[in-house]
């Protein structure tokens, strides 16, 4: 990817974030001039950066947004709800376009021009009432009549000029004061085929011809430059690289095929970049130096052994140097983890606009409180959290928050509150999404689950209210009575759990009727190194993350009791259902050797203890977890893979996800055990 575009894709989202935060804050403090100036400067910087690339749709939107903010800043226009809605929509769309650019490395999506035209129209109405969109910011594919006229008036031969570059340049009125010379820029265009320079304002032209100098301002530029060139678009754009927001550039053919904006050059695969403090890089370089010394020490030992060093002495020296290498690898791991850690707060600050847009669409008033200061997590965690958090927040606004009349009847303020809080607990980060809405009704969830056949009636009746709430994470579950653009399509919460599971985390839910709902996400601080318990079953080895294991147990056969369709045993006065890992994985069952004890891993699923029988405990390992890709990425019960020292691939299991995906009659929770 082009280095300039890569840098823009790093800084662009930051500018969008600054503008969005300032706009949202302005709703509560409309007279705060500093906030207006912050939003203006962010949009202005974005517009200038966009102009360095061939992104006309984005440039058009930002151009008019800057004009609107400039009118506020200069006191020429008062703040209005319609203008604020248009500006927030513009920043949101800009953020989405930046996401597309980062993901594809190419141009904007096919509907960018149409989307831009709609946003420009909204912004222009907010700025000038119902005035038409200025010609300088119209979508480039709309106005081609001037190109056809130039081609025809200059009697150009279509056979010789089957494809030309067309440029329309509308200089800023104050360009003379900045030392800009529109004519000089025009003269620098190579391979010029046709040129027309006219006046922007026809009324001013008539007044000047009538020698009415009072109606003509010689210090303000009102020229319009239109030209055709045989040179490629990149060469024509060159002289105007510092005024990109004042030009339209198209590749045009006289054939019947429609004109199209010039696409950006084909770019390589999207950027993954990370800003790192110089001190961390220095520390990493120092560790590399020490590792080189440790490597040389092993080479020296190999030479001594070749010269006849006694095996016992060699073993002792090797053990010492292996211990030193272990310490270095541990320090290296911690240093690399520190490099990958990034603040989570910038991610959380993206969501107030999401909540506002959702609430506006539903006719609700909702505030979002964000807190996550000083919390840092792995960059991959931050990148993977946007979609699940977006769904949780939209779900809270749509389903959790009551209409204003219902809130008033319950004695609640009309304006609801949702909190998004991140905090660190040990080696994990905990994120709570909490609302002060109506809460969740377990009885309604039971009815919906029964109607969809998610569980047999006897099992539903045996579930506690907390266990019933966990049913919302089942695939296909929904209590929505109508399908909307935001929810009610029978997908969502199961996708949230799957997305968080792929990050090595878990999701839980709690609710109080009439008081609100809290969804809690618990995730590891990093995804690079994971401690796992390696188990064997049916001749295969699998890994289970240690942070998901409560304990391991060896259970004598006489302690295991049949319970309905399953098995259970009592662990310290607590009945625990016993499942077979082989059955969960679809592998042949194995009986304990010589009738010996059953080996089981005890995990917590949905607030309850569940034991999973395995064939053998192989040991513990620190492994590098590689997330699944392709078709396997959506498979429930699998977190990823790792490569063992003997070259074999080890599958890392998500035990709660594996159990949740099991058939209903094998579900371990709520089986009515005595």
From TrEMBL:
Start and end residues of each CheW-like domain: 529-664
Gene Ontology CC: cytoplasm
GO biological process: chemotaxis
Domain HPt per the UniProt entry, residue ranges: 1-101
Leading EC class: transferase
Catalytic activity: ATP + protein L-histidine = ADP + protein N-phospho-L-histidine
Sites bearing Phosphohistidine, chain numbering: 44
An example molecular function term from Gene Ontology annotations: phosphorelay sensor kinase activity
Keywords: Kinase, Phosphoprotein, Transferase, Two-component regulatory system
EC numbers, comma separated: 2.7.13.3
Sequence ranges assigned to domain Histidine kinase in this UniProt record: 325-527
SUPFAM superfamilies: ATPase domain of HSP90 chaperone/DNA topoisomerase II/histidine kinase, CheW-like, Histidine-containing phosphotransfer domain, HPT domain, Homodimeric domain of signal transducing histidine kinase
Matching PANTHER family: CHEMOTAXIS PROTEIN CHEA, SENSOR HISTIDINE KINASE CHEA
Function: Involved in the transmission of sensory signals from the chemoreceptors to the flagellar motors. CheA is autophosphorylated; it can transfer its phosphate group to either CheB or CheY.
Record protein name field: Chemotaxis protein CheA
Organism encoding this protein: Nitrospirillum amazonense
Taxonomic classification: Bacteria, Pseudomonadati, Pseudomonadota, Alphaproteobacteria, Rhodospirillales
């Amino acid at each position: 990817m082009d280095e300039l575009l890569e840098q823009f894709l790093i800084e662009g989202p930051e500018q969008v974030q600054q503008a969005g935060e300032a706009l949202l804050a302005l709703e509560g403090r409309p007279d705060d001039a500093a906030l207006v100036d912050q939003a203006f400067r962010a949009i202005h910087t974005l517009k200038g950066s966009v102009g360095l690339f061939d992104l006309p749709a984005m440039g058009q939107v930002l151009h008019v947004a800057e004009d609107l903010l400039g009118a506020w800043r200069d006191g020429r226009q008062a703040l209005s709800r319609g203008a604020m809605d248009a500006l927030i929509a513009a920043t949101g769309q800009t953020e989405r376009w930046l996401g597309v650019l980062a993901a594809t490395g190419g141009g904007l999506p096919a509907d960018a021009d149409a989307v831009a035209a709609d946003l420009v129209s909204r912004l222009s109405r907010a700025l000038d009432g119902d005035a038409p969109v200025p010609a300088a910011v119209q979508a480039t594919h709309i106005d081609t009549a001037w190109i056809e006229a130039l081609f025809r008036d200059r009697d150009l031969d279509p056979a010789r000029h089957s494809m030309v570059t067309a440029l329309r340049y509308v200089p800023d009125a104050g360009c003379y004061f900045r030392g800009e010379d529109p004519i000089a820029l025009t003269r620098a265009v190579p391979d010029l085929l046709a040129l027309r320079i006219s006046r922007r304002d026809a009324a001013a032209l008539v007044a000047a011809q009538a020698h009415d100098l009072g109606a003509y301002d010689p210090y303000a530029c009102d020229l319009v430059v239109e030209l055709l060139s045989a040179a490629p678009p990149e060469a024509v754009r060159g002289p105007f690289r510092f005024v990109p927001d004042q030009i339209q550039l198209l590749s045009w053919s006289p054939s019947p095929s429609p004109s199209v904006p010039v696409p950006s050059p084909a770019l390589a695969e999207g950027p993954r970049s990370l800003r790192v403090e110089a001190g961390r890089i220095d520390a990493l370089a120092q560790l590399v130096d020490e590792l080189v010394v440790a490597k040389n020490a092993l080479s020296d030992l190999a030479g001594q052994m070749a010269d006849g060093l006694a095996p016992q002495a060699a073993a002792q020296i090797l053990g010492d140097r292996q211990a030193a290498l272990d310490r270095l690898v541990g320090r290296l791991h911690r240093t690399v983890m520190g490099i990958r850690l990034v603040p989570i707060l910038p991610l959380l600050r993206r969501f107030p606009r999401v909540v506002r847009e959702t609430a506006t669409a539903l006719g609700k008033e909702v505030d979002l409180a964000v807190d996550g200061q000083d919390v840092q997590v792995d960059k991959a965690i931050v990148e993977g959290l946007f979609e699940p958090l977006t769904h949780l927040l939209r779900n809270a606004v749509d389903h959790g928050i009551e209409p204003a009349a219902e809130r008033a009847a319950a004695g609640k303020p009309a304006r609801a509150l949702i909190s998004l809080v991140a905090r660190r607990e040990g080696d994990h980060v905990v994120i709570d999404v909490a609302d002060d809405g109506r809460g969740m009704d377990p009885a309604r969830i039971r009815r919906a689950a029964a109607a969809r056949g998610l569980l047999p009636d006897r099992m539903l009746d045996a579930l506690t209210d907390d266990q019933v709430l966990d049913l919302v994470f089942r695939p296909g579950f929904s209590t929505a009575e109508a399908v909307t653009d935001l929810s009610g399509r029978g997908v969502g919460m199961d996708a949230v759990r799957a997305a968080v599971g792929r990050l090595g985390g878990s999701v839980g839910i709690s609710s109080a009727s009439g008081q609100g709902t809290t969804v809690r996400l618990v995730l590891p601080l990093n995804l690079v190194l994971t401690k796992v318990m390696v188990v064997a079953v049916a001749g295969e080895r699998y890994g289970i993350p240690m942070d998901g294991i409560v304990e391991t147990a060896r259970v004598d056969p006489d302690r295991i009791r049949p319970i309905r369709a399953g098995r259970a045993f009592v662990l310290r006065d607590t009945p625990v259902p016993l499942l077979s890992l082989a059955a969960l994985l679809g592998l042949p069952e194995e009986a304990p050797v010589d009738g010996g004890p059953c080996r089981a891993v005890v995990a917590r699923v949905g607030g309850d203890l569940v034991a999973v029988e395995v064939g053998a405990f192989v040991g513990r390992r620190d492994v590098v977890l590689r997330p699944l890709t392709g078709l396997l990425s959506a498979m429930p019960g699998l977190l990823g893979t790792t490569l063992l020292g003997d070259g074999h691939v080890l599958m890392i299991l998500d035990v709660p996800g594996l159990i949740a995906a099991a058939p209903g009659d094998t579900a371990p929770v709520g089986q009515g055990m005595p």
